[in-house]
């Protein structure tokens, strides 16, 4: 067993652990939402807001993840489905996106609740994925969801160019075989587009997928409540998510 996890970075408590910083981030998300809703590009908006509030790079990363335009929020709300809508349906899961978020959550890293009700983390693949102590537990949580929801099939989609994606595909296949689960695993060069085009129901917190898929399910929010997970979540929004 390795000793890796996806816990907090040094300095995260300073950036996200005080009410002063959270109030600054909430104001930044409100401003970012205003700009996005009026057609400003995300990069320009985050630069303007980041400069105004003197945000550090990880705070800007959290800001981008939490923000969306009014049109994006309305369209995502329209396409979101509840757990009771999943029975006998095939669900496509954004493999690294969901795994890394769950690994971060289980490592007690900060995760951030966005305007759309999705949680997002500050970790990333950066061309290489490495298993951590929380990887198996994350897969087990997804298996619990699979069994409780009554979905007909779960399709994991991994980024083929990412190092170790083939190993993760095999791990998922082996786990499914041992547990007698109807799972499939795909390697795709453009997993976001593949999920958007092929999934009847997508599971991801990736903004592009949420904006282009047919429908989506908020798996991590479901797991937090259903499994009563302890979460180091940061709410940097003023209004209730939809």
UniProtKB/TrEMBL annotation:
Transmembrane intervals: none
InterPro entries: DUF434, DUF5616
Domain DUF434: start-end pairs: 24-79
Domain DUF5616: 84-221
Pfam families cross-referenced by the UniProt entry: DUF434 (PF04256), DUF5616 (PF18481)
Protein name: DUF434 domain-containing protein
